[in-house]
Predict the 3D structure of the following.
Amino acid sequence: MKDLIQVKNALWGLFIYDAISMPVHWYYKREYIKKDFGKITGYNDALHPHPESFMFRNTYSPDIESAKRLNRPYDILH
């Protein structure tokens, strides 16, 4: 039973850490976090784009022909 409680607590810690770190995901320099968020006293929305993120430059181009051939929808982003 003790092991199960420890696993449960570890999972809760993982979820909490993930939620807290979400706004600073893709930040690699702490000075950018301080510049964008100042003193962190609670939850903050993520900024768009993050100064060091490469994801915002990406584009999505569906392979419409393959989707038709496989009888699948091509608009995965809805």
